[in-house]
Every structure is written in C-alpha cells, then in structure tokens.
Amino acid sequence: MEFVYELHGQGWASGYIEINEKKCEFVCSYLSAGISELIERLKQLITDDQDINPNPMYWEEEPNGTYWTVKKVDQDQLLVQIEYGDEFGDKQELLLQETVLFKDFVKIILSVTTKLLRHHGIVGYRQSWGHEFPLADYLQLKTFFEDNPITVEQIDVEGYKDYADHYTTVLSTELKLLGNL
After folding, report:
1. What's the pTM value of the predicted model, to 2 decimals?
2. Where in the chain is the domain with CATH 3.30.2450?
3. How confident is the model over 3-62, as pLDDT tens digits?
4. What angle do CA 142, 145, 147 make, to 5 degrees?
5. CATH code of the region 2-146
6. pLDDT digit string (tens) for 128-161?
7. According to the lineage, what is the superkingdom (predicted)?
8. Helical pair 171-179 and 135-142, crossing angle rounded to 10 deg
9. CA separation for the pair 4, 111 (Å, rounded)
C-alpha cells in the first residue's frame, strides 16, 4: 500500500493511493478539506464516534472531484472506495474499491501527514493550503498506537454543570508529541 499527498501551488494538492496493485490518482483544491477530513474520519472510526458522517468525503477538483468512502468492515478491516464524479453525485465512476488492514491504513496516513507537518509547519501549511492543519485530530490519531493515548476528560464548570460540555487534555503531553516529530 502506498499513499502520496503533496501540496503544490496555493490551495492545491495532488497525489495517489495504491492498494493491492490498484492505483488511483487524485487532485484536491482548497474548496474541500482534503486530507483534514480523512484524518478526522479515521479518528472518528478509531474512537467509535457515533456522530460519524456516513456520506463520502468529497475532494473538489474543480469542476469535478473524487468521493472518498472509508468505513470499517470489521475491527481489523477498512473499506477504501474512491469514485470520480461531479459535486452533485451524478455520473460517478468507480476508481478504486479495496479492503485493507485498518491499522496499516492509519499508519500510512499518519506517515504522510507527519511529512506534511514537518515540511510545511503549522503556519506554513495554513498559508499553502488555505485551511488549518487538523492538529487536534492528528494528535489523537497519532496516539492510537501509543501505550499512553491522549485522554480527553470532561470537566465541570461552576454554575454550568448540566448545560455546558467542557473538556481538558494535558498540554505538556500534546507538546511532547509535537516535539518528537
């Protein structure tokens, strides 16, 4: 399995994914979230988030784009499906549909996003892409393989116990993860 995702020009990314000797090239513009949405979706799958959007992610190429579906087949397997079509979902062409090991897919996406972060930096990524680097989701995804994952705890705020959700993490742990890139 191989995945390449590179930023070039302001607000443009391109690359390819190869699974089981089947290759799919793609282009993505700043009009869509691109890799950020993929990182978020994987983080949701890892945490078994009940609010996962069941719709495919759309990577705008202007005027058409690719629809990315990633969903668990079981605890160990992930279906990766990519279709090409317009923004309305009409006339879609299946480009790739393969099953991979979930952990292997997460590892390769982490590898690519770590390279992006090292190369561009947080501010440089934003300047190049036009969107923020998905730092929080990236850190949670990164700790998927760690013995000491980032723990998100709900905290009470005086006077708002029943009405507001407030959460905390350990900043020093997060900064240490970034420092080890």
Report:
1. 0.87
2. 2-146
3. 999 999 889 999 999 999 999 999 999 999 999 999 999 998 988 777 787 889 999 998
4. 110
5. 3.30.2450
6. 999 999 999 999 888 887 777 788 888 877 766 6
7. Bacteria
8. 80
9. 10
- 124 exposed, middle or buried (CB, 10 Å; 0-12, 13-18, 19+)? middle
Q: Round to whole Å and give the CA distance between 73 and 3.
A: 20
Q: HEC string of the chain?
A: CEEEEEECCCCEEEEEEEECCEEEEEEEECCCCCHHHHHHHHHHHHCCCCCCCCCCEEEECCCEEEEEEEEECCCCEEEEEEEEEECCCCCCEEEEEEEEEHHHHHHHHHHHHHHHHHHHHHHHHHHHHCCCCCHHHHHHHHHHHCCCCCCCEEECCCCCCCCCCEEECCHHHHHHHHHCC
> Beta strand 22-29 with 12-19: parallel, antiparallel or unpaired?
antiparallel
Which pair of structure tokens corresponds to residue 157? 């705020």
Residue 107: φ, ψ to 5°: -60, -45
Quick one: angle between helices 35-46 and 102-129, nearest 10?
140
Q: Whole-angstrom Cα distance, residue 166 to residue 161?
A: 9
